[in-house]
Amino acid sequence: MKPFGYVRAASVEEATEAFAAHPGARYLGGGTNLVDLMKLGVERPAVLVDVSRLPLDAVEELDDGSLRVGAAVRNSDLAAHPLVRDRYPALSQALLAGASGQLRNAATTGGNLLQRTRCPYFQDPAKPCNKRQPGQGCGAREGVHRDHAVLGHSEQCIATHPSDMAVALAALDARVELFDEEGARSVPAAEFHRLPGDRPERDTMIRPGELITSVVLPAATAGLPSAYRKARDRASYAFALASVAVVLRVADGRVAHAGIAFGALAHRPWRATRAEEALVGGPATPDAFAHAVGLELAAAQPLRDNGYKVPLARNIAVDVLTRLASAAAS
Amino acid sequence: MAGTGTAPGATHSALGAPAERIEGRLKVTGGARYAAEHPLPGRAQAWPVPATVARGRVTAVDAADALRIPGVLAVLTHENAPRLAEPDDRTLFVLQDASVPHRGWFVALVVAETLESARAAAAAVRVDYAVDEHDVTLTPDHPDAYEPETVNGDFPGRREIGGPDGAPAAVRVDVGYEVTPLHNHPMEPHASTAHWDDGELTVYSSSQGGNTVRDTLASMFETSAEHITVVSAHVGGGFGSKGTPRPDVVLAVLAARATGRPVTVSLPRRYLPAVVGHRAPTLHRVRLGAGRDGRLVSLAHEVTTYTSHVKEFVEQAAVSARVMYGAPHHFTTHHVVRLDVPSPSWMRAPGEAPGMYALESAMDELAAELGMDPVELRAVNDPDREPDSGKPFSSRHLVDCLREGARRFGWSGRDPRPGARAEGPLLLGTGVAAATYPVLVSPSTAEAEARPDGTFAVRVNATDIGTGARTVLAQVAADALGVALERVRIEVGCTTLPAAPLAGGSSGTSSWGWAVHDACARLAERLAEHGGTPPAAGVTARADTAGRADAESDYARHAFGAHFAEAAVDTVTGEVRVRRLLGVYAAGRILNARTARSQFVGGMTMGLGMALTETSTLDPAFGDFTESDLASYHVPAHADVPDVEAHWIDESDPHVNPMGSKGIGEIGIVGTAAAIGNAVHHATGVRFRELPLTPDKVLRGLGG
Q1: A46 at interface of B, judged by CB pairs closer than 8 A
Q2: Which stretches of B412-515 are assigned E, i.e. beta strand?
Q3: In chain A, what are the domains?
Q4: pLDDT tens across B427-467, in order?
């Protein structure tokens, strides 16, 4: 680990100023991923700007019925928050499906979104990785890639995004609020992460120095039936082989609203818009669900050893849709 | 400095009592010092540099940038490191030449004032290589495979009874199984702290046996063993990977010699997979032939595995078939191929764990073919004598374990048809498998002293690797002395104590306990001569079991067990979760019910990992293991292990040692994977023959 500076910011403005003043700076949240990557030599920041103690640690209900989650809210606290559990069960379930109790106690909302892929080639500086070092090549494409992407990957990168939380946020139509010296903006959570294309070193659309200040859960999906399901190698403390978050409203036997996002299939949470479009207005039946999910997954391009992810994703999505629909009917 | 402890207030003295761990309080309060936790004055820290090619030669090392980092004391390479005498185990011959036998082999060591400086400097060392082609892929018909004379444990590689199999059999199975590489990954990574002081070497090492470490260092550093003290007071697990010295201790001693400072080498978790051993993958072909009555007429178990170019280690996976079942035609063989892989080594129940997975899975397949209950199939094939040697068993209560397990598990109502039980999308099944592990014992010395204050000091260089060895040895002593446990002070974990063998092969308690028992029995006699009260100078008695503990026995001596599992297979995801695991063991006299249970349950949990979650993937392109941390090498989490029961039957065996005990540290893993695999077949009707049973494989098998 190379020596680095440390700055603790007291305000959002102070944080972005500190970042701008220090070339090679990185924001530090819970440090559950960044510090590991520093030890591995993957991240080599000159300065850490600690944003974990900014006054962004509250979950507050806004006048329009939406819920604003501060970027420094810990994953454990967010998962346990009564309003989150009540109105956005998929988010609470996704958070609790992630990592371990100890990690969730440390990890923050903002940091969770910005965690890096767990691709083993990315994590080993002695191996080629276009994400870590553009132009170096990809060790995973012809290598060990059982856990890698089946959707939206590129010649340069087949990594997946590891977050469970982000998958639920994408399905729930959450927005990510950002701040930098040019001001504040907000983007849909489903568009916050990007596909690798020929710039795999960029995980998200965030600008250099821009800070996540909060995540807003909209009133529109509050209280809608939702659920998260994750398939994994062991029952706890394992990244998803595939996961799905579903928000479903059924009225008179027909789908009135569908939000579906897959995890562990792509470089970002994969919002299944094709499936959603196929479902809305149609019957809420297992056959319709299977058809719609099939349309979405038709775009999959599995690699040599990860073809199982396609039926796995299909199965969990149809299962969750069917469960939510039958719960609505009863 | 070695682990000295006083028994807690509990007054259990009888062997078998569930005495609490003597050092338990010390451990949970952080007072127990492990090998890296000895901050000697002036201590430096070292960080190794692993090779980044799979095969080749170091052509140049540029340490200039590394040496410029503040606090760096030295960069040792094969060009400047002190010379070593060549050891038998060439995995220890580090920094002596330019060759790179596998990826991850250490090519340099940075010594610095702090761990952070050492790590940063290690990253700054530039190494150039001449790279050769490599091959790390084991195949069943690899052209370089050969048949070794002997396999691990010095067993013959091949045994053949009854000539070629031409026997008529009503039913045959001919099946292949695969167990992928596995890693021990003890909680405490391998670490050593070394200090030279005027020719006297003190080493704190995380090892399963300090005497072996001392003797190996004496030979490599060409000094007398009397000048070396090895302390292994507390060890955070080993599972075989600390059974022999590892590069950490050699590097620490080298670095201490080169810098004149005490040095700690604490291997990072990510470096362990390449340098501290692993269970080699095994490819199995098992052929069984049986009559309609289930009696085996032929048994063939053929194993193919790999070893490294550094040393030959052949996982003896076909050996357990020689113990388990007899057949007029009985054939067991091993083939091995040298690949450019990290050196495999001992991992909990080497041989038995993968071998019994294959054999006991094949027995389940045979039972299904016969339409016979798998418990009954094993019962009808229970031999009177050890099939391979023809010796009588000192005790064999496998069938009792199976019957008792079946009773406790509720086996009798089982519908044998596969796929008959479902809960929504879950398919449920139950499975059974047998287990065996040999009774191993080595000579040991021990010393017992009666002190005027009424306490007894018992000294033996046993190693407590987390098993509770201190406690059980104190119980053995108390029992032999006929005194309460709290009067016994046990000292273990230092080579200044009477020499003793390693904690391995489930032999520790038998070996050490025998010597402790004898020393204490002798002391009791001497004390009686003094009218029961020791004189002011105390009374001491010593024992050495050489010639007895290692005497050839007229008996085949093994522990046996039966494993039962209930598994739920999710047809949506292919996820397999174990609902219940139950083991019943016949392992001689159980000396401490609490720590024994912990050993059995721990072994079963490790077997669950072998069955479902643990695997190390060799990367064909880069030549290393992909899973290099505990986030990706999936040891079972608590959520994977909901209900594990371990029981034992009262077994009295007069032919093993004075305590009547057999080893218990390994047998728990042995049959577990097969029992779970058989339960998965019962649940689904599909035979999965490659471990671990991860969702990708299971979903594919279900037609997912």
Answers
A1: no
A2: 421-423, 426-438, 445-450, 456-459, 488-492
A3: 5-50 (3.30.43.10), 225-329 (3.30.390.50)
A4: 999 999 999 999 999 999 999 999 999 999 999 999 999 99
